[in-house]
Write a structure and sequence with these properties.
With about 55 residues, this protein is mainly alpha-helical. It has one domain (about 5-40). The protein has 1 helix and 2 strands. A two-stranded antiparallel sheet has the order 1-2. The mean pLDDT is about 90.
């Protein structure tokens, strides 16, 4: 295994970790936090699915 192979492996691992981090960010952007119970809900909902409170 040459040094070049190690660099490629590190690049692949960093790419995978970056993709996971980006997916988590997008997931959080697509959700709303309920101001009453602090649970996360889908952004297209008007009322919290846990407590029924109105989402902002």
């Amino acid at each position: 295994m040459s040094r070049n192979d190690g660099d490629k492996l590190v690049g692949i691992l960093l790419g995978i970790l970056g993709g996971i981090a980006l997916a988590e960010l997008l997931k959080n952007l697509l959700q709303k936090k309920c101001p009453y119970c602090n649970n996360m809900n889908e952004s297209n909902m008007e009322n919290c699915k846990f407590c029924g409170g109105r989402l902002q």
